[in-house]
Amino acid sequence: MKDKKEKNLPEGTLVPNHLAIICDGNRRWARARGKPAFEGHRRGFDITPSLSRACRDFGIHTLTFWVFSTENWDRPKEEIAFLMKKFEEFIDVHLKEAKKSEVRIIHLGRKDRIPSSLAKKIIKAEKETKENKKFVLNIALDYGGRDEILRAIGKMTGEKLTKESLSEETFQKYLDTGSQPFPYPDLIIRPSGEQRTSGLLIWQGAYSETYWLPDHFPELTPEILKEALIDFSKRRRRFGGNDNVPRVKFSPEKLAKLESVYLQEGDWENQEKKEEKIGNWLKELYGLDLQNSSSAAQFYCEGLILAGKEDWAKAEEKMKDFYQIIKEATGYVFSPEAVAKLEVDLKKTEKKTRESLDKAELEKALRNYYGEIYRLSDLQSRRTAYYKTLAITAFNSAGDNSATAEKYLVKTYETLREVAS
User: Which helix (H) or strand (E) element contains residue 13?
Assistant: First the structure.
C-alpha cells in the first residue's frame, strides 16, 4: 500500500496498489430514467476515461474494469452487438491515453468468443503497451473467475508439471494476471446495490476489501472513488494474522464514568478543575502518562472554550496541538490536522442538532471522527457512533439524564473496544 499525499486525498491516505471495479447497473440506471438500456451502456463507457485518470492521479498502480462477464452472453443479440462495438471504441480511447501515461493494457478473459475485430484491437493494445511500467489497466471482458481458473489448469496440464513443482506461486503465473506486479486486488468496488463479487478474480481476491455502492456505475465519479479510498485507508487488514495498528486498552466502565464526570461539570468557572477531570478521562482513553495527559487536557479545554464561542478557526488550531500529542503518545496513524477538523465539525454539528429530533447528521460526523482516529471503516464505526449519539442526546436533554447517558457511554466504549482492539 502506498502512503499518498496527492492534492485530492488527505495526508496519510493509504492507497491500494490494485483497485478493481465491477461495472454494474448500466441498464438499471437507464431504466430509472425512462431510457433504453443502450443509453446506460453509453454513459458507462463515457465515464471510464475520467475514472482511469482519477485513479492514476490518486497513485493507484493497477486498475481493473470488469465490463463483460462470461454469463452476459445470455443478453439480447442487439445489446451484445452494441456492447461489442462500444468495446472497440473503449480500446481505442484507452490505448490513446495509455501511450501518453505509460499504462500497460492487459485483457482478462477469453478472446475466442468475442468478434475477431475486437480481439485484434485488444491484441494490438496489449502489444503496443507491453513495455509500459508505470500503470496497469486490466480490461476484464468475457471474463469469469471460474473460467479463468479452468483455463489456468488447462495451461498447466499442457506443460505437464510435477506434483512437487506445484505451488500457489506457480499456479498464480498461469492466471490472467500472472505477469503483473500487483495481481491481487486490494479493494473491489461494486456499484448498483449488489453485495457480492460474482467471481471477479476469485483466486487473487481472497483478501480483497470490498466497498458497496447503492448508486449505479454510470453515477460513479472521482469524488465517490475518493470516498471509497478514504474508507479503505481506515481499514485494518490482517491477512489472517495481526495488524500493526496500536490497540485500545481502556476499561469501558471506567472511561464512561470519567467522561460523565467531566461532562456534568457544565461551566468553566474553574478551568483548572475541569482540566484535571478531562486529563483523567484522556489518560484512560489513550493510555497517557501524567505529563502528556496534563498537556493534552490543556489544549483540549482551550479548544472546547473556543468552540463554545464559535471561534472555529482557533478551536481547530488548539485541537490540532491536542491531537499531535495524542498521535506521538499512542503511535496512532491519523493526521492531527484531519482529526482536529473532524472534532470541530463535530462540535458544530452537535450545536446545530441540539434542538433537533433528527440526529443523523451528528451520527455521521461521529462515524467520520472515530473512523479517522482508530482507522475504522464506516461500517465498523457505526455502532460506536450510534451509542455516542444517544449519550450526547441524553446529556443535552432537560432534566437529570446522567445515568442514562453514562449507560450509553459504556456501550459506546464497549463497541469501540470490539472493533479497535
Answer: strand 13-15
**Structure pTM?**
0.69
Domains of the chain: 2-233 (3.40.1180.10), 252-420 (no CATH)
Count of CB atoms situated within 10 Å of the CB of 209 = 17
Provide the 8-state DSSP code for 113.
Answer: S
With contact defined as beta carbons under 8 Å apart, do 177 and 204 qualify? yes
Write out the E strands in 202-270. 209-212
Query: pLDDT tens, 282-299?
Result: 999 999 999 999 999 999
Per the listing, cell 481493473 goes with 64
What is the β-pairing status of strands 209-212 and 187-190? parallel
Supply the residues annotated as catalytic.
Answer: 24, 72
Instruction: Report how far residue 232's alpha carbon sits from residue 237's, in angstroms, rounded to the nearest whole number.
Output: 10
CB 108 within 8 A of CB 202: no
Element (H, E) at 223: helix 222-233
Residues 162-210: pLDDT tens digits? 788 888 989 999 999 999 999 999 999 999 999 999 999 999 999 999 9
**CA dist list (Å): 157 to 15, 162, 163, 402:** 37, 10, 11, 70
